[in-house]
Design a protein that fits this description.
Elements: H1 2-21, H2 39-42, H3 50-68, H4 73-92, H5 106-109, H6 111-134, H7 140-165
Organism: Mucilaginibacter lappiensis
Protein name: Rod shape-determining protein MreD
Keywords: Membrane, Transmembrane, Transmembrane helix
């Protein structure tokens, strides 16, 4: 259990560091911005209690908000992401026979499940975050294009990091 805590603490620090010092400055024509920091929430083990999941999500969002000068936007979006994660996992994990797996990584869950998981949760997070940022329906077409393009970019980075940093484990 202490190894899991250490691994997740390192993930938290690395993802926040990458988001704040590297990815914050990467945008494509002000349409696509990667938010890789949400990978921390996505990779938390299945057995994390919901109250801890929401607290960690809020803490992650507040940390990003501190560096982005966005008071509460990322915190709110991360809590929504945690809620959608709980719902998605409760619907899919037992149905697909993954109830004995420790965490939802690309190497453990497989490409198809992880891609669907990452895409759905990223779309929810980005939709909520970018709509809170604009807080207007007058530019809904621009906002939706930002949601889609940013989600594609973020999921692409998630898949690349999953392929690079997680080794393949044999399923039983």
């Amino acid at each position: 259990m202490s190894r899991t805590i250490l691994v997740n603490a390192i993930r938290f620090l690395v993802l926040v560091f990458m988001q704040v010092f590297l990815l914050k400055n990467i945008t494509f024509y002000n349409l696509s911005t990667p938010y890789l920091y949400i990978l921390f929430i996505l990779l938390l083990p299945f057995e994390v209690p919901n109250i801890l999941l929401f607290a960690l999500s809020f803490l992650l969002g507040l940390t990003i908000d501190a560096f982005y000068d966005t008071p509460g936007l990322h915190a709110a979006a991360c809590v929504v992401l945690a809620l959608v994660r709980v719902l998605f996992i409760s619907i899919t994990v037992q149905k697909d026979g993954f109830d004995n797996e420790p965490e939802p990584t690309l190497s453990i869950m497989g490409f198809r499940w992880f891609f669907t998981y990452a895409l759905v949760l990223t779309l929810f997070h980005h939709f909520f975050l970018l709509n809170l940022e604009v807080f207007s329906f007058t530019e809904i077409q621009y906002t939706l294009s930002r949601v889609v393009l940013s989600s594609i970019f973020t999921v692409f980075l998630m898949l690349i990091s999953g392929l690079l940093f997680f080794r393949r484990k044999e399923r039983k």
